[in-house]
Design brief:
With 393 residues, the chain is α/β, with parallel strands linked by helices. The protein is built from 14 helices and 21 strands. The structure holds flavin-adenine dinucleotide and 3,4-dihydroxybenzoic acid.
Length: 393
């Protein structure tokens, strides 16, 4: 067995692990990142697309925002459609100047990986069986296998940035955890296509046939979603079926303006809300999807991972640079306070925008009444906008 030492081991090289790694390296704190899969595999996953202003600022602070500002699309509003009508939510006006940035998670991850290479910091890809150990004592360590050899990395802290299925949360004794979960009875079928987006801003659609979302990655690349059944398979949907279905769920003027074309990615994501409490166990800290999942409707998953990174980084900087553990000790409480507000917002958007078979036509009318209220009440629109652009850290 090989044995090495670092200050912080990060399990998971998704956006949260890479961003934390970058902020630690920038602060002069040694860290190693481990991931089960290859960098190419991580970059092949199509996920989030909307960055809150707080996320944009964190990427600026990390020094990885240059391409995002060049290629990303700042959006100052989005549309809601329901009952054949279309209404704009003017985020910038409703939040006194805030916007969101359309820039894919793949691009954020690529920028962070490139920076890590420039930093000469260590990432071990295709590390098998990564396991946190002894995190309830003062000498935690992580083991993993690579090319048939077992490695042990001793450290001060282990940060679990390893997503919902990763080993960090699973290493905590069940009795020490409280979990909260809601599984929704539908999924999202998403496609990417090299066609210009139907509108220059996003469109979230409520329709009796189900939810639809018109999003984008660039001015020539569209990302579209439709609510689908949980037992559906992406391969059961031809491109023509997808285009017909999404157009049915949009007002006529939008459907008629839509440019269609072959998709080059098509996949189904289930929707769930999940939170684990607390987010810290001794020397092990959970960050991002390892600790919580939100349904994608409010575009919060990636943004929450970034706010967790902000809080844990404050804690680690306090420990190493200021010799104070106040922020580290407050991590779980501070992160969870923001997490629960985003969980609530994502649940609310999901409930208002999707078809729930059990709620019938009564449920549909209630949703339309809520949406009508939302777009005509300045107070309600402001609340939606304030949450969508992201609550303060
Ligand atoms: P992840 O990105 O999941 O990264 C975790 C990393 O840990 C991965 O690289 C994984 O390989 C690694 N890992 C796992 N197990 C191990 C192990 N045993 N050893 C070492 N490493 C391990 N959010 C939105 O806002 N909008 C969306 O449209 C959207 N779509 C999504 C679609 C899907 C299918 C999924 C799964 C998520 C989606 N999300 C979306 C959520 C968003 O992508 C996540 O919230 C975000 O990726 C969280 O980042 P993370 O770094 O915490 O976790
Ligand atoms: C995208 C995903 C979302 O969940 C969302 O609310 C908005 C946009 C996207 O993938 O572009």
């Amino acid at each position: 067995m090989s044995r090495t030492r670092t200050q912080v081991v990060i399990i998971g090289s998704g956006p949260s692990g890479l961003l934390l790694g970058r902020l630690l390296t920038k602060a002069g704190i040694d860290n190693v990142i481990l991931d089960r899969v290859s960098a190419a595999y991580i970059l092949g996953r199509v996920r989030a697309g909307v960055l809150e202003e707080g996320t944009v600022h964190k990427l600026e602070e990390a020094g990885v925002a240059e391409r995002m500002h060049r290629e990303g699309l700042p959006h100052s509003g989005f549309d809601l459609t329901f009952d054949g009508r279309r209404h704009r939510i003017d985020l910038e006006h409703l939040t006194a100047g805030k916007k969101v940035m359309i820039y894919g998670q793949t691009e954020v991850t690529q920028d962070l990986m490139d920076q890590r290479t420039r930093d000469g910091a260590s990432t071990i890809y295709e590390a098998e069986d990564a396991q946190p150990h002894a995190f309830d004592g003062s000498q935690p360590y992580v083991t993993y296998r690579k090319d048939g050899v077992t490695h042990r990395v001793d450290c001060d802290f282990i940060i679990g940035c390893d997503g919902y299925h990763g080993p960090s949360r699973k290493a905590v004794p069940e009795a020490a955890l409280k979990t909260f979960e809601k599984v929704y009875p539908f999924g999202w079928l998403g496609i990417l296509a090299e066609v210009p987006p139907v509108s220059h801003e996003l469109i979230y659609a409520n329709h009796p046939r189900g939810f639809a979302l018109c999003s984008m990655r660039t001015e020539t690349r569209s990302r579209y979603y439709v609510q689908c059944s949980l037992d559906d398979k992406a391969e059961n949907w031809t491109d023509d079926m997808f285009w017909d279905e999404i157009r049915r769920r949009l007002p006529d003027e939008v459907a008629q303006a839509m440019t269609t074309g072959p998709s080059f990615e098509k996949s189904i994501a289930p929707l769930r809300s999940f939170v684990v409490e607390p987010m810290r166990f001794g020397k092990l800290f959970l960050v991002g999807d390892a600790a919580h999942i939100v349904p994608p409707t409010g575009a919060k998953g990636l943004n929450l991972a970034v706010s967790d990174v902000h809080y844990v980084m404050e804690g680690l900087a306090g420990h190493y640079l200021d010799k104070s553990d106040v922020a580290l000790n407050g991590y779980s409480e501070r992160a969870l306070s923001r997490v629960w507000k985003a969980v609530r917002f994502s649940w609310w958007m999901t409930t208002m925008m999707h078809r729930f078979d059990d709620n019938g036509t009564f449920g549909q009318r209630i949703q339309e009444a809520e949406l009508d209220y939302l777009v005509h009440s300045e107070a309600a629109s402001k609340s939606l906008a304030e949450n969508y652009v992201g609550l303060p850290y």
